[in-house]
Amino acid sequence: MMIEISAADRVFILTGAGISAESGIPTFRGAGGIWRTYRVEEVASPHAWQRDPAMVWEFYSMRRRAAGAAKPNPGHFALAALESKLGERLFLCTQNVDNLHEQAGSRRAVHMHGELFKSRCDTCRRPPFDDSRTYEPRAEIPRCECGGQIRPHICWFGEVPYDLDRIFQALSDCTVFLAVGTSGVVEPAASFVARARGRARTYYVGPEEPANASAFTKSFLGKSGGLLPNLFDCK
Ligand code: NAD
Fold this sequence. Notes:
Bound molecules: nicotinamide-adenine-dinucleotide
Radius of gyration: 18 Å
Helix content: 25-40%
CATH superfamily of the largest domain: TPP-binding domain
Oligomer: single chain
């Protein structure tokens, strides 16, 4: 069975850590997951930044090195190909902070949890900027012209995800909703399917059922790199 997409459909795709697993980037909770090695509150929260910004930069420098070596897999390429067919009728929303969707050719991915290769000032409104620097342990924290400290452009635990207005609008407009490689426990993304359900056909792709499986019309069980390239039937 494939997902049929007609000329009238508007497609919302939500991706999670699972789509990047086959590119060698560890997922959130799985074996080898980064959060089993680090305590979230020590490295990915506003409190951590206030207490020990050098340790926070050490963690994100490690993640920049790992993600910088990764290459997109067939799952990312399949979604980029779908974007070139559907154009604005596809809204790609990712919880991932890596840039593998962009490396595969996606041009309009919305990164609701930020981007690993961007930084911003923790004080002024200067927009986030491209930044792939890494820092040695205990390195000095770079400063903005305003005197603030430069922090990773990441939505930390306790912060509000980015672009929620655009995301909720796209959820109300969609007729097809597909979640890929996301465990269905991290809010608010876990509730997106419930917003789309009723109007939209809802699908899940991943090796195991997510926590919110009952909200999906159908689950395609398997790895996204194997399934996505043959999943869409565009009329
Ligand atoms: P999660 O780790 O909670 O869940 C990952 C899901 O991916 C699981 O349900 C697992 O079954 C599935 N999965 C594993 N291998 C897969 C494969 N080959 N194909 C398809 N699915 C596969 O991840 P989440 O729900 O995205 O939440 C994690 C949070 O951590 C997100 O907010 C995200 O910002 C962050 N995170 C990002 C990255 C990244 O940028 N690559 C990596 C880890 C965590």
